[in-house]
Amino acid sequence: METLLRQARNQPRNLSASELEELGQLYRSIASDLALAQRDFPDQQVTRYLNQLVGRAHVLIYQGESLRWRRLICFYRCTFPQLYRALLPYTITAFVLFCAPALAAFWAVSADQEWIYVIQGPGVAPLVAQVERGELWTEIAPGVRSAAAGLIMTNNIQVMFLTFAGGLTAGLLTLWVLINNGLALGAIFGLLSIHHLVGGLAEFVLAHGPVELSVIFLAGGCGLYVGDGLLRPGLLGRGAALRRRARIGVQLILGSTPFLVIAGLIEGFVSPSALPWPVKALVGLVTGALLHTYWLGVCRRATERALDENAFL
């Protein structure tokens, strides 16, 4: 095996057909030896050696890197949108849990500015003073937009993971994140409406908002999905239900990270730019439409089996 591995130099095409066949036979034999060694001599040097040898042969035989790329392409081509549609009721629930408090906070603050202190606490006073001076906080200087985009992406990803991880508290933390953020956003828009500054903030969020909020709602849906599994495990035990649902949720969360990166880049470079608002609105409309077309329209066959097929990946 050592000789064949040196001769292959990480490329199976460097071996002849007979050598490839011998490589396969040796791999099965050494893997069997490794299993015996791990049972009978777990702390011996021979076990560590066999483990290293089997690992090198496995990489050569199965070409792990290209296999990972194929699995990644397959995931985004079918698995991801299928899982999104399977969890769509939870995502819609997360959307309602965010939007209903946002509308209530907007109505309350726009009717009486003092409500923002009830919703946000006394720490919001500097922001209120800034708005009363007719100033917004959305301007990002061109020289620092790259750094700002990085910070925005990091923050968005943290919020997404926190919203999802809230499912481990039976969904209570997920509920708190969704409701609290909805109240905060609605209260701020209500405050701006009093001082006729809504247009400025709306123009800022037009470009990145559709993608960013859609992914946050998906993270909320994943958190609610995990929490529902803890509360209603069905025929499975709670531990098994948690592992199954968390595994599915993690796939969706990790798969959504590139979309938040895109949203962060748009928020860092396009949203604070001098582009006219119709252009920013077009960016938001196109990116949001493409994302939901992908989620709702790609690989629609067998969506109902997506949860079962991907629970044990």
Description:
- By secondary structure, the protein is mainly alpha-helical.
- It has two domains: 2-62; 75-310, no CATH class.
- It is 78% helix and 0% strand.
- It is built from 14 helices and no strands.
- It has helices at 2-8, 17-40, 45-62, 64-86, 88-111, 115-120, 125-132, 145-165, 172-194, 198-205, 209-231, 238-270, 277-297, 306-310.
- α8 (145-165) runs parallel beside α11 and α8 (145-165) packs antiparallel against α12.
- The protein is elongated, with a radius of gyration of 26 Å.
- The protein starts with a helix and ends with a helix.
- The relative contact order is 0.12.
- The mean pLDDT is 85.
Count of domain modules: 2
Helix content estimate? over 70%
Mean pLDDT: 85
Q: For the terminal residues, how far apart are their CA atoms?
A: 31 Å
What structural class is derived from the secondary structure elements? Answer: mainly alpha
Largest sheet: none
The number of distinct helices, counting runs of at least 4 residues, comes to 14
Give the overall form: elongated
Could you give the count of β-strands? 0
Q: What is the percentage of strand-forming residues?
A: under 5%
N-to-C SSE string, H for helix and E for strand: HHHHHHHHHHHHHH
- What's the alpha carbon Rg, rounded to whole Å? 26 Å
In terms of per-residue confidence, which ranges show pLDDT below 50 for 5 or more consecutive residues?
none
